[in-house]
Amino acid sequence: MEIGFSTVGIVGAGAMGRGIAQIAAEAGCQVIVFDQQPEQVSAATEQIRAQWHRQVAKGRRSAQDAHTLFERIHDAVAMEDLAACDIVVEAIVENLAIKRQLMAQLGKLCPAAVLATNTSSLSVTAIASGQDRESHIVGFHFFNPVPLMKVVEVIPGLNTDPAVAPRLCALARAMGHTPVMALDTPGFIVNHAGRGFVTEALRIHGEQVADFATIDQILTDQAGFKLGPFELMDLTGLDVSHPVMESIYNQFYQEPRYRPSVTTAQRLTAGVLGRKTGAGFYRYTEGQIQRPEPVRPPNVAVCPPVWVSPKAARRADIYRLLKTLDAHIETAAAPSAQALILVAPLGLDVTTLAAVDQLDPGRTMGIDMLLDDQTTRRRVLATTPATRADIRDAAWALFSRDGKPVSVIRDSGGFVTQRVLAHMVNIAADMCQQGICTPTDLDTAVTLGLGYPNGPLHLGDAIGPGNLLEVLFNMQTVYGDPRYRPSPWLRRRGALGLSLLQEEL
Ligand code: NAI
Predict the structure, then answer these.
(1) Are 309 and 280 a contacting pair, CB within 8 Å?
(2) Residue from 10, 36, 42, 148 whose mutation best tests the ligand 1 pocket (most atoms within 8 A of CB)
(3) Contact predicate 245/199, CB 8 Å
(4) Does residue 117 contact residue 139 with C-beta atoms inside 8 Å?
(5) pLDDT tens digits, residue range 150-186?
């Protein structure tokens, strides 16, 4: 494979610099590592060599191969040792003034080199602007841990020479990584696209719709996420994730879609950071997460007959499901006086639907049918403020009859999964509208960078852009909040029934 670079300099031998040095050597480059703290350099090169030793011990690499790699890694004692590099990647402290100063020094030292920055939150253009080597400064954003996270964002600044990015993409491929091209905008691709998941979950919790653990269970079991948003925040730590939420929100001039939450601000102030402090949204005992015991469905001897609203989403699927659950189904135009009334709105709240359709709110329950029941591992029901306890328990028991877990939540515009998925896809759609990246790169970056089961646009295709638009339009009505306004990009595709992954001419 054509690498295009022979000698890679690394400045900053911390968590990221070490990983980048390792994969650069594995790609066949000579690597020179520098850090302002010399002990960091030796610690880094030792750690990398130990990693290759382990691979030899496990039979994943030959001793000869490891020896070749050892020979490619060199400690720099002074920054001048980087003079022979044809690319230098900086992974120093995340501070604009310090990174600019470093780029100015490197520009003088390595007048022909590409100068790449691994910044995660600063503007590449701001780092490059006015520098002698401005046209050769570029973003090269890896994820932690670098050898395992197989994606890297390539971010040209406003004045970067267009020939630079393709060279970086070739280097990334030689490193075994997938490069994705991003416009120099706050959060680039992955940290921007990741906004919807956590902020909407916080909003749902803030509205008392469900507790943390229930929201996590719904999103893992219904939508297939590996970790729920609250467990994820506990893992990352609020000292990292809350400032990122604030920074992206403010860098986009208070765009409502990215609005952070007072919940995380307050918890950060209190030092309730997550796993690292032993307490976050969950408690941790000896590093083990303490989850609440699952709530058993109530015992209900006789279930009332069930009447399904003609407007329900996936009505035929609901009937099929009710038959499987051995329910007594009413098929008259209106419900009987005993019936459990079932509605399945998209985006709209159960209560408004009951009021508009003149259904008895005391006997009305909602079920989330955005996703095909057969593809999910949990069902979600919602009460209205007037739903009777016996009706809630009957619905809960009925939908648990086949052993599938059921969560009962309070009513809001959209259920948990509808809200989070619609918000996430809408943000992804708007990133395409802004030309931040191509639809394909967006899905690739998010799948590899965030470990989501699918990219948001792929997910949007599976759900149907029209269904997502209905969720968003209705949520906008319920909340009157511009954060739910559908992106024009999603509207156009929804109107034409087009794939979200299709690229425009
Ligand atoms: P770190 O704190 O582990 O390592 C930074 C290293 O840079 C330290 O060894 C420090 O001595 C050295 N350093 C600081 N200023 C220097 C200077 N002026 N000249 C030479 N060396 C200097 O930091 P980490 O986590 O590796 O992050 C580095 C960069 O990568 C930051 O820009 C960060 O935003 C970015 N990044 C971090 C990710 C992460 O998960 N840790 C993920 C993606 C990007």
Answers:
(1) no
(2) 36
(3) yes
(4) yes
(5) 999 999 999 999 999 999 999 999 999 999 999 999 9
On whether the CB atoms of residues 401 and 326 are closer than 8 A, the answer is yes
Residue 142: pLDDT over 80:
yes
What b/e string do you get for 140-162 counting C-beta neighbours within 10 Å, with b at 16 or more? bbbbeebbebbbbbbbbbeebee
CB under 6 Å to ligand 1: residues? 11-17, 35-37, 40, 91-94, 98, 102, 118-120, 142-144
Q: Where are the chain's structural domains?
A: 7-184, 306-404
Contact residues for 386 (Cβ-Cβ < 8 A; gap 6+)? 351, 361, 362
Indicate the top mutation candidate among 118, 177, 450 to test ligand 1's pocket, ranked by most ligand atoms within 8 A of CB.
Answer: 118
14 CA → ligand 1 middle, Å: 5
Report yes or no: 31 and 11 within 8 Å, Cβ to Cβ.
no
Distance from Cα 92 to the centre of ligand 1, integer Å: 4
Q: Residue 505's pLDDT is what?
A: 84
Which amino acid type is present at position 171?
L
Q: Are 210 and 218 in contact (CB under 8 A)?
A: yes
To which CATH superfamily is domain 7-184 assigned? NAD(P)-binding Rossmann-like Domain (3.40.50.720)
Vertex 431 angle, CA 245 and 491, to 5°: 120
> How many angstroms is it from 219 CA to the middle of ligand 1?
33
Q: List active site positions.
A: 120, 141, 153, 191
Residue ranges in 389-438 assigned as alpha helix (H): 389-399, 416-433
Cα–Cα distance for residue pair 264/244, rounded to 1 Å:
11
Q: What is the DSSP letter of 357?
A: T
Ligand 1 atom having least distance to the Cα of 17: 26
Which CA distances in Å does 118 have to 22, 98, 100, 435, 468? 15, 13, 13, 22, 35
CA 332, 335, 337, 338: dihedral to nearest 10 degrees? 100
Ramachandran quadrant class, 344 (left: phi over 0; alpha: psi -120 to 50; beta: rest): beta
- Ligand 1, atom 31, lies closest to the CA of 94
The per-residue pLDDT for range 244-298, each reduced to its tens digit, is 999 999 999 999 999 999 999 999 999 999 999 999 999 999 989 999 999 999 9
The preferred substitution site among 10, 11, 16, 236 for testing ligand 1, maximizing ligand atoms within 8 Å of CB, is 16
